[in-house]
Queue: 4 jobs
Job 1
Amino acid sequence: MLRRDLLTLAAAGAVLPWLGASRGAPALVQSALAQSAQRYASMHIFIPGGPGGGWDGLGRAIEQVARQAGMVGNFQFENVGGAGGTVGLPRFVSQRRGREGSIMVSGGVMVGSVLANKSPVGLRDVTPIARMTTEPAVIVVPASSDLKDLPAFLAALKSNPGGTSVAGGSAGGMDHIILGLLLKSQGRSAKEASYVAFAGGGPAQAAILGAQVKAGISGISEFAEQIKAGRMRALATTGETRSLEGVPTLKESGVDIVMGNWRGVFGPPGIKPEAREGLVKFVTDLHALPAWKEMLQRQGWDDAFLSGDDFDAFLKRDEAATAEVLREIGLI
């Protein structure tokens, strides 16, 4: 199998110099990569969140690119949302244990939620496969809001945190942590936050657009369409550099907060080493496709690919860092 894969890619490399900058080169590369890729007759994708959220979006993106490349014959999706993924996680652990061809899409939000909710089941109970993407969060308000900019929002948090309700993902996740850090930056306590947790991006959007809350915090991709349509106003993003035209970062606005929301793929517990290696190869092959690069650009996701044991080591560091932040702002 390995020799065949190398020969396929070598053949593509030998032809590329002849093609030069021709329009056929990208298609040839994609075809060669797809032919050598790990394949599954069917794949079960478990989303421990509701439809329309960031985990669901990544799962659908994996489906779209893998299906087009002929890497998977059939997909089955299962969404079980609630409490930052800690409702669905035990279901995945118990029902998919040892079953090949199954993956769960999750991320940094679950790390915080497991800690905040004192969940007996965590990401240590599944099989790390790969970190795929990361993206900064964005703070938004309804287009009709009287909070016109970030200083106005921060002033509202400082003067009346209990009356400044903010929608986001589940308790203890990145959105909640960002709000806690914002309150701390204004001399208030995270415990004073009026945080309204939602199981998925769809319900959070509805609450913001319906002015049921004052503001919202989530990954840029979850609110991008509403911002572009003018139904939401973006106040700031949480990345190191600007991600949205005309929208400042918290850091450049004088608030020293930089955070990104990573998302990744996990296998069930109890799978054989060769099954894990197969899933690692699957996501590695997927990541190498030009179509995946195009998907990242279209969704506004940053490439954060990290697989296998390196991903496992990252998870341990991330859990320790998240626990430290949650303690610092009083959420655990």
Job 2
Amino acid sequence: MKHIKGLFIIHTVFMLAVLLALIYLFGKMGNGDVIVGSYSDEELAVYKRIWEDLMLAREADNKRILAILFAFWSALAASGYILLTLIYFRLIRPAQDMQRFSSEIAGGNLDIPLPVRKSNLFGSFTESFDMMREQLKASRDREIKARKANRDLVAELSHDLKTPVATIQAGCEVLDAQMLRKRKSLAEGSPVTLSSDELDSMIEKVSMLSDKASTINSLVENVFRATLDDMEEIRIETSEYDSKVLLDHIKSLQEYGNIILENDIPECLVCIDKLRMKQVIDNVVGNSRKYAGTDIRVSFGMEEISDMSGKKMRFLFIRIADSGPGVKPEELPLVSEKYYRGKDTAEKQGYGLGLYLVRTYMERQGGGYECYNEDGFVVKLLVRVAG
């Protein structure tokens, strides 16, 4: 804009100089010398009338010439302003737009569009330049999405690895306690089936395993902390399994504490991803152990639920409940949201992804999930029945 202002000022000054020059020249032309001679009174009267007529004619001619000169000057000045305006809109402004656009692109701002004006000299070029910006932006978005997907995949896997590591730790703690009791019995003279050296060796090994499991857990947490931004769905492939598979896995989780099976699981074929279903159950039971620390009650049943089209679908439900304080009513809708942690969980280590993964995995297997308070915190898993 500074360039065009400078050109307008130069043109204005030039035209004012031209106007002053014309006025000066016009004034010089109007100042003729009058020759005075010796005339009689009658001749002077005649000459005076003639002179007055000539002056009137000359004044009219001067006005006409002055009007023509002013009109010419005005046309010349207006033509200059019009030409400068055309130069600005056709050349200077497109060049300034390109310069500003290039600076934004160089600074990494790919969201700013370049105005495309096909009527100017750079019309087709700016269109191609803006198309290049769109391609760069799309390429950057794809790169960000791919990088995010990689981070999120590591985050999800890191979270799921924490559960088996915790299981190893819990098992080692149980074995350590058992070995210590046997060591105490041996010291008191009670009969034992292992020698003192054997017991010492087993206690040392169990302690070493527990220490290594803690190290693995710390490393997994470090990886997980570096990938907390978002989550990405990983592949889930469902197959038909006997429902007893779920029961067997629940029974294998006794290291979490006392798990009470209130009834037997109905025999049926369920459509599940076996690994993801194990992760779901581990997360729910692990949360109950961490936050409630009570016995865990598990019950099973069958339900029929209609889908959006009205078709009835059969589900096997797994109800997992503890006897803890439960979740505050206002927080219940939020506990399965990504990264949400209740106000009463500050002293417990976690990232707010456990129930989010439970909901995500269940929905992607064609099932469902719900949670509520009923003499404790209850999670109800709906597993799709085959057929």
Job 3
Amino acid sequence: MRRGWWGPPLDDDQRAVLELIDDLAGSHLSRVGDERPDDVDTARQALADHGLWTMGADETGGGGGADLATTLVALARLAGTCPALAWASVQAHAAALVLSGAGRASSGLLGDIHQGAPVAVCAVDPAEGDAVELTGGRITGTLDRLDPSGREPRLVLLLDRDTAVAVPPDGVTFGPTVRRTGLDGALTVSCRMDASVSDDAVVRGPRVTQARTLLHVGAAALAAGIAEAAAQAALAYSSTREQFGAALTELPTVRASLSAQAAAARAVLTTSIATCLDRPDVAAAALTPAFDLAVDVAAASVQSHGGYGYMVEYGVEGLLRDAVSLRAAARATEAARTAAHVLVGGDA
């Protein structure tokens, strides 16, 4: 189903991307839940087959070569349909950025990711409960949450601002799928690591910071996409629902609410698409406000639907749960803490 676009003006390539995602939404990207992981694999593979999975990664390494703005447009649109897959795609982009600077041992992994293999990228943060150590060529530790939209994903860790590791799969043990409030199809798991790491699997340098920033920038675009989808759903429902012989949009209070939702969605969508990777502090600072706004708009959309807003068939309650769960998955609180630390003169 075609939806309008409330963000900044689009060029021809960006419009074509939106049309492609809308077409796929009708055939491959329906919400299937974690109980049908084969269908999640099929949806993820459909994105790869159509060049969307890593469309913004370096073309010389096997990615699509799209510019960042076009990539964020695609991710925002995908988030309004299937946020779990959109977040998994953000992680695939971050992994591709890191692995393009790795040794030859990681070239096969990079190719697999471009072909649609699931990958989880985690920016390690002890304050979030992560306990990971890389010492003497061995990586050990545990992670409480990964959201790869795929079973037994390859794992890329951003240990600090300068160091990343592609963890060998034979040294990773995944726990059972974890229940969440939202993000159908994320196949959330915990994991335990104890693996020998070769020098080729360790990446150091600015690509690591860029990958971390890409996670933040991508997550903000997803929040914007959820807000847009929720605001458009509220407008569509209110335009067709009648009360006292007239459409709900005839009521001044309803019009005011819809206008506020639309304005907020347009603002966050425009801001998120215009971000870049050269200001990691700005990207981190923008993440929490983007998700706060997405949650507010989605909650207002539920209210605009009245009692129907709480019914799964109408979809908006799912968007609200997705916004809350994705905010946790993207570690918006940690990003805000980092941005605040930089603001007062600390290191990034």
Job 4
Amino acid sequence: MNISEDLKKHNFHFKKKLGQNFINDDHLLNKIVAAAEVNGDDVVIEIGPGAATLTAALAKKAKQVIAVEIDQDLYPIIKERMADFANFELVCGDAMKVDFDELAAKYGAKKYKIVANLPYYITTPIVMRLLEEGFQAESIVIMVQKEVAERFSAKAGTKAYGAITVALNYYGEVSQAFNVPRSMFTPRPEVDSAVVCIKCRQERPLKADDEQLWRSLVKAAFSQRRKTLNNALKALNFPAEALKEALAEANIDPSRRGETLSVEEFVRLANILNRKKTLA
């Protein structure tokens, strides 16, 4: 493929504020499609198709591909590249605002797959919107900055483990598929990337009774990583005695730091605190 010629033909200029880096390697495109396990029964929603290189690779395998793009300057490039695909729809819009369930429902799909080469600056907000707002995606396969991928899939007790790790693993099963060198993009970014797979949990084995409280707990635990839980969780404004009792009931040593707690421990502690709040 020759992305540069297509972009030049349409007098396209990259917008730094949108973090635009387009994939220019056919082998990589096929690896992403394979990681997403796309087949002929799937409706796939792609966020940020860019120059539609991944879009075309997806359309060769999927029943239907719906691409959501915010940059109007890319529309003629996308339409030209996808002209031969009857199973393609371009949606002009903002991925932070569109209703993904509604898009998929037009093609009779209650469940669908999301694939994206996300701009680094908006990776976390988009992923958390997809998970927290309860969309019916069965999986999310995304290209992200390598450092971010390491945070997404980190283990408790490691330096990369943080609030985002806990959140993602609460809503889904996270794995890192493979790394991607910066040379695979046009223009070349300053960092390497990685593809991450999130299999969304249809029924969560760990369920917070009050997800807002659970989020506040996780945020407080990581807000100052060097603080012990006994000190960090004071930000929740629970009575000191109630917090002490909750930690004991959850079998969590108050001298531990938030980065050592598993997702299960965060949920267990949040539910105990919620019961105490309800009874107060």
